[in-house]
Fold this protein.
Amino acid sequence: MASKIAIITLATLAAIASASPINSPRQTNPCFVIGSETLPQEVIDSDNAIVSRITCDAATTTIDNVPDVTSGNTTFSSINFANSADTPLTFALNNFATAEPLASNDIANFSAAQDVYLATEAGLRSVGGSLAIKVPKFFLSFQIARIKTAQGVTIADAGQTVEHLQGKVTKNAAGEDQTLIDQVNALATQLS
């Protein structure tokens, strides 16, 4: 009798095991991660946060053959810094400027732009591509932090504060003209 119960138990466990997929940390990559380079955990985390908001157009590619990505009504190819003759920081300052008063800016538009930059950065990292994209990506995050601050939103994540992101922009924009860095520093003090 005990052996019959053991056989039934084993058969039941085998059936359950074969019916349940084993979940690995990353079974499939998002559509924008096209390469095989190992991604930093923070990039994987941002991929997981944005993947449901991103669609890919595999027929249209951008930098290093990363598919063109869309979030909401924003497509990366429409705001691709690499298609500009401007430096990455000049492009960011010109294309991701805020209106006055700062609190009146539509955070959803800035967030959609940030999403497509995050997705494209992940794609670039996956193929070992250039990381010049970090300047406009961090600038978008910086602008979002400024808008949230002006709107009275508490930013609990220390890595998403205006001050922290100001440092990220200026660090990644090393080598850019000092007058551009000065503009970023001035924006960091304009929070209303």
Q: What stands out?
A: The longest helix spans residues 107-126. Helices lie at 2-19, 41-50, 88-95, 107-126, 134-150, 162-172, 178-187. Strands lie at 54-61, 67-71, 74-75.
